[in-house]
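Worked example

This section walks through a single chain of length 113. The input is the sequence exactly as stored; nothing has been trimmed or padded.
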Amino acid sequence: MPAASWVDRVALGLAIWSLAGSAAAAEPSAERQDELIHLLRHDCGSCHGLTLKGGLGPSLLPDALGDQPAESLVAIILDGVPGRPMPPWRGLLVEDEVVWLVGRLQEGIGDAR
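Given that input, the structure is written out below as tokens.
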């Protein structure tokens, strides 16, 4: 797929994010947070490394995420990256959950389960 397709998808994700951004994202329940951290460690970790330092996919540690806007990371998680091994998680995760996960990644999840 041409690079413009990926850029267009990220731009669309950012536009949707900005429309929804006026309302605060709902924080998942404590039980769901545990489930999401487990998913992050195991499902995401299968490509990004079990310590999230990188593998097939790039590192998901705060210093590696650098200046990437949260909105871009949310769009990538929800819609994947065409032509790359990053699958879309939309349908398995809702946007509020992904916003919460991105926040944890940007802060650093340490030794969370």
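What to look for: The domain at 3-14+30-107 is CATH 1.10.760.10 (Cytochrome Bc1 Complex; Chain D, domain 2).
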